Amino acid sequence: MQITFKCAFCVFLKLTTMLTNSALKGKDTGILIKAIFKGSPVSVSHGANRRLLVYKHCIPLCESGDLQTEVASDIIGLLMLETHSLPGHALATLASLYVDAIKVGEMNSGRSLELFPTILTALAATEALAYGKGKLLFVKPKLFFTHFCLEHEENCIFCVRDVPLSAEELQFLIEKILRMFLKLDLQEIPPLVYQLLLLSAKGCKKLVLEGIISYFKKQDQLQKEEQRKGESEDVEVQTIPQDQLRHVEGTVILHIVFAIRLDHELGREFFKNLKVSVCLDPLCPFSIALLLSVARIQRYEEQVFEFLKGAVTKNFKDDQIQHSSKFLQELLPQCNSISDMILDTVKNSVFGWDHVTQGLVQLGFILLDSFGPKAGAFGKVTEGTSSTAKTPNQLACRLGGQVLLESFKMHEPIRGEILEQVLNRLVTKTASPVTHFIDLLSSIVMSAPMILLESSSKVTETFDQLSYLPLSTVQGLLKAVQPLLKVSMSMKDALILVLRKAMFSSNLDGRKSAVAGFLLLLKNFRILGSLASSQASQAITSSQVQADVHSRYNTAANEAFCLEILSSLRRCLNQQADVRLMLYEGFHDVLRRNSQLASSIMQTLLSQLKRYFEPERDLLPPLKLESCISAHGDQVFIQEPLAHLLCCTVHCLLWNQNIQSGGNVSDDEDGEDEEGGVQSELHAILESITKRMIKSELEDFELDKCAEFSTSSSVGVKNSIYAVLVMGLNEVLMEYNFITANYNSKNHFEDVLELFKRYHKVSEILKERAGKGRPMSSKTSRSLLSLGFISTLLTALFRYNSTQSREESLSVLRSSGDFLRYSVSVALQKIQQLEETGHTDGPEGQSPDKTFRHLCDITSVLMWRYTNVPSTVEDAGKKEKGQSVSLLCLEGLLRVFTTVLLRYPTRMSNFLSSLDVSGEGEAEGEGSDLTEQTAFYIRQFQRALMNQLSGGEEEFNSKEAQLLVSILSVLSRHLNPSSQQFVQMITWTVKICKETNFEDISLTKGLLSLLFNLHVLYKSPVSLLWEMCQDIHSQLGDIDQDVEVEKQSHFAIISMKTAASTTLLVLSQVGKVLDEVDWLIAKKKGQISSDRTISGNTPKTSNTPQDPIEKAVTIQLGTLLTALHELVQTALPTGPCTDTLMRELSRTYSILTTLTKYYIQLCATQPGQLPARLEKLVKLSGSHLTPQCYSFITYVQSGELTAGGSEKLKKKKKEDEAVAAASAKVLRETKAIPNLIFNIEQYEKFLILLSKKSKVNLMQYMKQSTSRDFRINAATLEAALQEQEQQQDQSQHDPDWPNLIRKQNHLHLRQPEGEYIFS
């Protein structure tokens, strides 16, 4: 026995020596192994043992690293072929050998690991065998992966890839590996992810993807927290270097994209998982980058961008819903902003993520194209600029621009593509607004002007299309690229060439574009010696260009260039009125920014004005108006906008004179003399025109009360043009004489008043003609007074206190109530224009800073005038035609606050600080925060409203009260909802609504709207709605006239007269509450889906407390049902009230159905007892609301429209017939009733299903539905026939009784059982 063992051992040594020598030499190793296997049959024990010895020797030999790769591969290949012939105990021994080797780290090269899956596969085919000390071992792959070391996880996955695994084993393995991610070194993650993706071909794709995304999401969050901590403590704390993490993320993304490209089932699982998870939490930067990389696969491209578009808008909408409701803010945490995530993705892409950059460009342009401003009626832009973005669409558009701008800054390869696509859209999108693309181009130019010079050819190609583009696009484009023109001679020359061609274009817009371009060049190519931009106006800065224009172009070159442009522009003075108008409106800005051109500009204006000026002093009128009009056949149109020419002349003259008086005089004495001569001549002409315009009568202009102003005849059009010109000329002269008077000349102020009287006379004639219904122009012409002058004029009229002589001069203007009203009306017009367009006509109207300053001054005056001279005092003192000045001031204040909120939202604090109400030179609330400043002015308007409400009905001014409430609504938006001032505002509003009993419908609407808007930011308004519904029920009475309603009055503002309008407001608020509830239920349904897919079913015990969101939804719906229970019993007037109530009832039942479906879904995933609150809600809906809904339907259909009280009012026969006809019309046109009944029945259907699922009988609370078929109730029919016979007996002598009987027979009779009878 011993000899046999020694012989066997010797044979083994010889075999292993032979194998080792052969393998090291690389000769005939395969032949040797085959020979050994042939001589070692498995059927005999020593043969199987010999084969096992060969395996045991060859595996470490291959791992030693001493063999050539080809030799080791051949050996492993031969061993794999013979593995399935090994007996079970040999396979178990080899498997244990591998496991022990992996544990102790002997698998260095990993060459033999290819054999391991084959061993496991063969072993898996063996169900059971005796192994190790006689114990029975069930061979499962799970056994070998329970205690693996971290460094061998990749090898483990590789080994198990080809091994058949059950779903449970695969899930166990993947979950174990994913848990180990956090313990691994970052550099080991990519190869492990690669192996996991290969393993996902067996299943658990969703688990693999979720685990990978979740890991990198946590890493990103950890990195952000470390950055925040480092910034707050000024200490750099980095567990993982940022660049290393980003590079690893980029590699993993490439692995996943490659796997999705090969396995489309993995791609479908990826999108499925994201759609579920995005309902709960927005995407993270890693998942966004992964999506954009997947978009490179053509079949997924459209799906990716549609998903991202939806995710962006959903996130913005959710954020908007949550911000607008305190109830939702307290219930849910603030969701992460997807815009921050996308912008983080852009920042992360700088770490070599080339596979993401193209997707970022596509996403940016898709957002801009999809959510950019749209053209409304008549080409009007329906949405504001990106700087004041508020709606989800505007925010998404702004995000697209930010993505493209940041991508342009960070990635050089895509800059050309971004610029080309932006310019292409400017050229091709002529029918829709392109302001968002212009803003993007401007930002790109300002951020990297020198880089853009490399793509100057693309810009010059766009210049060739200028004459075909809309004027607004041309102006925006030229303003955006203006900094480039200062540093690129070729670009400037190309633009000038295009503009010269456009000057002679047959297209009017082309010529206007040429004028706009030349004016822009004149503004920005200043001649040395001109005033600095800080002295003149805020110029377009080009500090980022890092080039001095005077170093590139000398003074002589600039001057020659500007004079050449001016000579080209003079040709425009013979073109159409629109072209001339553009020139006149631009000359003043050119003069302010390029003061050395004053002489040329003034000379041009003088020569043009002389063409229409009558030099003879006694000739009336002083201007040739007939030369300003042209006729082409029967068509009459204006040729010369003479009033604008005079306006431009006056503004340029006064500005130039002001600069010279300030000491900013040119050194050129000849030029100064020439300029002085022009100015003197212009002053003389203007004085002559003033005197003669005062002397002129309307007949001198062929205008009088008998003149025709119809737009349907050429004479009427001509007279209308004359009237507009005369009014404009008088306005310009008023401004000129007021400024030149300098408060010292009473005669000049008298001239101003006389000019106004001429203006007012023409204006009254036009209003009179319009009042008679004759077709007039659709729009009142804009005032030519400048915003700066209006500011000065109002200050002088209302707040100017100085010497007695100046007061005497101003008293001339103050004595005219019409002039005061006119001044405030023009201010209103300018503010409205600023609100609609963002700028005003006239000097400084295009400068946001100057406009803002003037707006502050005007508001200060209006505020002082209104608070110091109440309208009651004014009305008592004077009874003049038209609105009072105080009321106009109040309307102006409302417009100002609205405009500042829209156009200057970030400067509201500066605006309120600048208002000087006290008159002592210091603004109230200065130095405090915005909430305190706003609260100060809110108190001012609250006092004014209390004065209105505290007086009698004779002193009550409805319009003033409405304006005050509107102002309070606008100002209250700036209060911090968590501040004490906000609580005080709500308390005051509730008190006013409870105590005010003025039966004014408009005031009621305003106050209740204010109350709702405030209350929703304080807490849920459902209890408020309930009380109001009780008041409405009390005021209007019950649908059953025999029922006497308990008189309740929570809010005195709700009366018999205002109840109907209040009902519509209440129902509107009910709709908003239902929207919130619906949104919450959708959130919870998404959470259930996500929990079910991630964590599986977790049974819910009966002791588990109800989810706070479920509880809140149930309470909200319960209170709403109670409120609606009051309304459906109320005798509402037919029409909008009943229709709206039907719709909201229908929505309520629809949402109750959605809630029922949610609990059905919950019962399927988390079996447990239904919450008690839900049962109460079902009981409330079934026993209280549903029966009353059917009664209300009967009430609407039967035409019982008489509201209130137990007394039955007797109606005349004609009124009865009209009511019946109205009821029939409502029945024909409305779909609300069948929709309501359908939703009730759907609700009951799903309640039955929920009862079966939960084993709780919820239908016990539901009463049997009203029968709505055509069955005849015999008893009711007999009673109706008897009543009919009695009426016939009583009405025998009435000639109309047959008609009355016929009408009665067609009415739906309401029965106590809720059944219907039809005759």
From TrEMBL:
Q: Which organism is it from?
A: Cyprinus carpio carpio
Against InterPro entries, the record matches this protein to: ARM-type_fold, FANCI, FANCI_HD1, FANCI_HD2, FANCI_S1, FANCI_S1-cap, FANCI_S2, FANCI_S3
- Report domain FANCI helical positions: 265-348, 533-767
Extract the coiled-coil ranges from the record.
1267-1294
The record places domain FANCI solenoid at 49-260, 356-519, 784-1011, 1025-1278
Query: What are the boundaries of the signal sequence?
Result: 1-22
GO terms for molecular function, please? DNA polymerase binding
Keywords assigned: Coiled coil, Signal
Instruction: List this protein's GO terms for biological process.
Output: DNA repair
Q: Residue ranges of the FANCI solenoid 1 cap domain?
A: 15-39
| UniProt keyword Coiled coil, yes or no | yes
Q: What is this protein called?
A: FA complementation group I
